[in-house]
Amino acid sequence: MLKLLKLNSEKERAILGVVICIISSIGGYFLLKFISTKENPPFGHTIYIIMGTSFMAIGGVGIVAIMKYLYDLNKREKRKQIKRKKHKIIFLKKESADKE
To answer: How many angstroms separate the CA atoms of 48 and 91, rounded?
Structure first.
């Protein structure tokens, strides 16, 4: 389990974050639709409605933020490639010791 959290690639970490956000949204949906509609939930209807909508909102905002991060990451990589193509590497000619 700990090796799963020590991912090297940023894209793999982003995918794990999206999965966590989806699980959070599903949990919020479950709280909102099933538990809050029961006749007498343990802590009252209002708590489950607030918690369900909060979990769904946090999951949605998290997914949007992670997708924006991945988009910016791809833009940064493309920008670096374009900069590398503009600056060509020029090797200097070696001066021989014979000219001295």
So the answer is: 68
| Torsion-angle region of 91 (φ positive above 0: left; ψ -120 to 50: alpha; else: beta) | beta
Q: Is the full-model pTM beyond 0.85?
A: no
How many angstroms separate the Cα of 69 from the Cα of each of 1, 6, 60, 79?
25, 19, 14, 15
For the chain, state the CA radius of gyration.
Answer: 26
Rounded to a whole number, what is the distance in angstroms from the first to the last CA of the chain? 66
Give the ranges where 1-100 is alpha helix by DSSP (H): 2-5, 10-30, 45-86
pLDDT digits (tens, 9 = 90+) for 30-69: 988 888 778 888 888 888 889 899 999 999 999 999 999 8
- The CA-based diameter of the chain, rounded to the nearest angstrom, is 99
42, amino acid identity: P
